[in-house]
Amino acid sequence: MADDQRTTLTQQIQAQEQKIKQLKVNNADATVVDGEVAVLKGLKQQLDAINANSPDKKKKKAGKNAFVLKTPKGTKDHNDKEMAIREKVFSTITKVFKKHGAVTIDTPVFELKEILSGKYGEDSKLIYDLKDQGGEECSLRYDLTVPFARFLAMNGKEYQNFKRYHIAKVYRRDQPAMTKGRLREFYQCDFDIAGTYDPMIADSEILKILCEALTDLGIGQFSVKLNHRKILDGIFEICGVPEDNIRPISSAVDKLDKSPWEDVKKEMTEEKGLPEEVADKIGEYVMLKGGRDLLEKLQKDEKLTQNASASQGLADMALLYDYMDIFGITDKMSFDLSLARGLDYYTGIIYEAVTALSAAPTTADGKKVERKTKKGTDELDESTVGVGSIAAGGRYDNLVGMFSGVNKKGEPNLKIPCVGVSIGVERVFSILMAQQKATEIKSNETEVFVISVGDGLLKERMQIVNQLWDNNIKASFMFKNKPKLDKQWNACEKDHIPFAVIIGRDELDKGEIRIKDMRSKDAAQGGGITVQYADMVKELRSRLSEL
Amino acid sequence: MADDQRTTLTQQIQAQEQKIKQLKVNNADATVVDGEVAVLKGLKQQLDAINANSPDKKKKKAGKNAFVLKTPKGTKDHNDKEMAIREKVFSTITKVFKKHGAVTIDTPVFELKEILSGKYGEDSKLIYDLKDQGGEECSLRYDLTVPFARFLAMNGKEYQNFKRYHIAKVYRRDQPAMTKGRLREFYQCDFDIAGTYDPMIADSEILKILCEALTDLGIGQFSVKLNHRKILDGIFEICGVPEDNIRPISSAVDKLDKSPWEDVKKEMTEEKGLPEEVADKIGEYVMLKGGRDLLEKLQKDEKLTQNASASQGLADMALLYDYMDIFGITDKMSFDLSLARGLDYYTGIIYEAVTALSAAPTTADGKKVERKTKKGTDELDESTVGVGSIAAGGRYDNLVGMFSGVNKKGEPNLKIPCVGVSIGVERVFSILMAQQKATEIKSNETEVFVISVGDGLLKERMQIVNQLWDNNIKASFMFKNKPKLDKQWNACEKDHIPFAVIIGRDELDKGEIRIKDMRSKDAAQGGGITVQYADMVKELRSRLSEL
Q1: Which controlled-vocabulary keywords does the entry list (chains A, B) (predicted)?
Q2: Contacts of the segment A426-429: beta carbons below 8 A, 24+ positions apart
């Protein structure tokens, strides 16, 4: 058999080589030639794969390129159990989003390269590019926010007033640290409100949505750190940070959740050239945490209130606290002046939700990965969020304008302010997977398994299962002419199917079938109640409605 | 403002150039340098974008590279209305799949290039490759079948008995014919049953699932063309086609749904070197269509029954007809000997569902695209299926084995037979979108809009909407301190929200609110019934349950 295949492939390879030669003679377009070369390579690989296992050593050598069976670095398959958890998470979150009037849109998985360029600062080097196969230069999306802003810039006139969510995969060519749960392909789950509104109303609804979603996901206690870019920028101005050093100093401050003040101060002074007394002044502010009490304290700080940026930020925060009180979420919030967030594009409030629970990351087959923690700290992290974070976001009023072009005055043609949140669903999956055994997860929804006793009764089982399907009951049976009774029971139990319909020749002749509740472990293979065949659907419906 | 940005960007560009220079001096790794160059390019593009709109002509010239705002060629955004239809389609299909016990898995959007190589014959040239940025060579998935087979080869021992569906995007670097509805990124929707079972049982359930899904989708009349690769191969053998010409002749036969016999015969004889009498003999068989009557006719054909391959195929078909009778789907089937299907990997029954309806493709904004049809034929097509097709599939018993490696005898290490179907959901979307006006599609699920009359009553509206959310009622309000009444009505109508809760100062003081059914057009902005605030949730729940 292998020899036949080898002969056919060898002929195909020769023909393909001839074709490519001819194309080159005819000066065919390079992309056409490349395509045919790809076909040739495929054929050669097939041949390699066969030769690799050949007992003939000489041929074996030629097969050294036979490939390893795996997914690309930093990616993984998600099996049925994992998908069951994922679907539960998505549907829980989507329900909350829809309760708040959100719609969804879909954008391509890749964008023109230039759309993504200049949006992610130093992280631009993590963008995946598509190969230039003749045509446009494209890259896989890095997040869902930039494609959303691009969509708004293209269609914004129809979407001046827009609540949208988007749950999809994004791509980052990071050094994958699987043991940290960091992947190159992972889901993001974004909710954003676009439009020009009165201050802080949409912002407070986003925070309400975040609290509802995290509560409904059942991942335990959480709190939301809250800050305002304008207060932070005001503090930097007051303390004497030069304007072009504000963002670098801001990202140093953002490390305060992981590093002690001394390290952050060192970064500010030694790496970023800030005078020590300036750093100390910043330190006095950014160590402050609290609730509305902190806001009231800052409102009495004349240096802050006299700074235009800080004053605006404080006014926003006061309004926000009023609205959060109405929405009943103030107790979840922690006003934290050390929160700075990495991304450059935020212009107003910023926030990050943290959870007390950690999660052991799992491999593709659901096994727990052993983690090495450094200095006893929990180092699990995701690309979007810091240590312990489960969601993050903020207001970004200028991103859409970056895509809309500028008018003669240098102002954007279209300005659509936005506020949004991104929930770190990969971390949520990890937490929920860690909470249960894989074998206990029911990944199918099958309600009834049709079992025959004695004879195979294939056609009779098919008749019954067909009747169940036609009555919208989720049902399965074994694809064997004469399945063994044991195997049928096992299949039913393995898939956690709650009911079995059991048929035997004698009972069928009397127009009867048996229904057994598989969750009652008492009578292993016996038991159940006998009902008339005509009452089967009615009886099952009544029992299923009680589940 | 533009000048400030320009100065900052110029400084950043200089700094970045310096950084790259230094990296090169230090012999840094090429991928590191490439990353920093990508950052530099981004900064330069931002500068270009600003200069492009500068009134200063000299600067304008530098901005000639400013980008066009669009999605990549062959891709499109899907707006909220389109997504509402898509979600309906996905949930309808998923419900059918789950009724039949299916689970879902997820695989990465890209695979190692060598996994895809040699699987798609000449179409391999349509595979999208990722750029080699240091590391593995990867390609975007071309379909969902090969990743499924790769998954089974990796995890098959746990999945000997597996019904899985997968709804996800695939990628083909085809010449996009948007007017034909053909895209480079499109959804596939696959259902497959893997495992070693008794003959034709799983095959018949796949056909049952296909009929249920197409019926539930509400796309009108359809029929399913049915054939068997072994019967077809037997016919070719009997007629005298040399073995290495069977697949090429088979793909000529597959064109009979689009081309007259004379053209197909010409391809067989002139292009593929078949003697005319052989082609004529084939013609006698492949023009045959029918039902079980055709099967019975073929069962009496001694030439066929004496051919091992055809005889096996006929036995399969006989069993299949028995099972289809039980499942009540025989009337949808058309046994059609001209159906050959393009893909090489089919080994048993093959099928293709066709619908009477055609659909006008739409652009991203929901407008209908004007189509040019050639010779009066409907040329709408999708990459997976032929003209008029809406679903297709077949049995492929050897694909998993291609990934599992071969033993010393040249046989695959792991053999998992599969049968599956792929529903052409892009075409289903087109048909359903064409059936209704975009403005009439409700893309949100909001049930109640809270409106104030007279004063703005922002905090009161927020209190009410919060109470509705806490009671799981989907509610919205306008993000304005003092919204105009007209604008609130318009928002409510535009989003097709069925109920309004209307509040005014006087009524609130009396503890009352008004509930209005927005679908009753009689009393434009008045009307509705007054209820006690305490009864609001109860009253709304009762009305919503009647929707």
Answers
A1: Aminoacyl-tRNA synthetase, ATP-binding, Coiled coil, Cytoplasm, Ligase, Nucleotide-binding, Protein biosynthesis
A2: A426/A181, A426/A183, A426/A186, A426/A187, A426/A382, A427/A181, A427/A359, A427/A380, A427/A382, A427/A385, A427/A389, A427/A390, A428/A89, A428/A217, A428/A219, A428/A390, A429/A82, A429/A85, A429/A86, A429/A89
